[in-house]
Amino acid sequence: MNDHTELEGMHYEGNCIRPPSEAYSILLQVTVGCSHNKCTFCGTYKDKRFRIKDDETIYNDIRFAAKYMKRQDRVFLMDGDALIIPQKRLLWILDQIRTHLPWVRRVGAYANAKGIKMKTPEELKALRENGLGILYMGVETGDEDLLKKIRKGASPQHLIRMGRKVREAGIKLSVTVLLGIGGVEGSFTHAKATGDLLSAMDPNYVGALTVMLIPGTPLHEEWAAGTFRLPDEQGLLQELRTMIEHTHLSRGLFFSNHASNYLPIKARLPKGKQEALDQIDSALHGEVGLRPEWMRAL
Asked: Which of 82, 73, 91 is nearest to 17 (CA)?
């Protein structure tokens, strides 16, 4: 690599998203888009054809971070599923981060079931030993029929196996689930099945988001055609309650603090479960204020 290249800033392409917990991380875009890119509710990467960025661009961004981002001690690898990068290249990226950003304590990335499946347990352990500390996995629902309908590309059983594979490698696992994705009719089934899946997977963190209807997505078209009805505020709160009620973690945090949600919850399970359920009950009875519509966002 040419160390004398003029540093011109980070090379970001298109919309870049990251988990709420990575708000203060160095955002290093190593892939563009998402290798799956078929989910009916997601419009994030529709304008991007998936590819892995070239080594020189990645190297220059790391050098830029080394010069200008010395106060940030975490790195998040974007876009949709950096784990799908071949092992040798991913280890090279982690090595460059360790070499040029020695103050960084943790590297995180999004991962999908396909990317996790492509890595052996030994490869995942090697990534952990080289700095990869957390993977964020979009599960959305534990309802098998609903997973097919939203074109997630994985069964509940496969998602559970892949999540446990991450945990067994010593990498922290943060799972995302989607409130409202089952519509009004499928709300209870979705909530209960998702709690059951989370209990079997036992992640370190669960982040509940509320589905937002994005123009141009198949889900938005279903809603416009009247074939999909999103639960109202009360319905979404009841769904969150059912989901938490059926979620049994050995020791994990359950969040609903994303900007898309009406009620922010932060509960350490199992001991904080009843307090969270009581908080939701208070909201259902109008005793707790909800996030106003104008403040909700992706």
From this structure: 82
**Inside any domain, residue 238:** yes
Neighbours of 292 (CB within 10 A): 8
Contact 262, 237 (CB under 8 A): yes
Q: pLDDT at position 179, please?
A: 96
Closest by Cα among 121, 125, 135 to 91: 125
How many folded domains does the chain comprise?
A: 1
Q: Which residues contact 226 (CB under 8 A, 6 or more apart)?
A: none
Please name every residue paired with 78 in a beta bridge, in sequence order, or none if there are none.
29
The pLDDT of residue 292 is above 90: no
180: left (phi over 0), alpha (psi -120 to 50) or beta: left
- Two tokens, residue 151: 């074109």
**Strand spans (E) along the chain:** 26-29, 31-32, 51-52, 74-78, 106-111, 132-140, 172-179, 205-210, 252-255, 266-269
pLDDT tens-digit series, residues 180-238: 999 999 999 999 999 999 999 999 999 999 998 889 888 999 999 999 999 999 999 99
**162: in domain:** yes
pLDDT at 262: 84
Helix axes 87-100, 55-68, angle to 10 degrees: 20
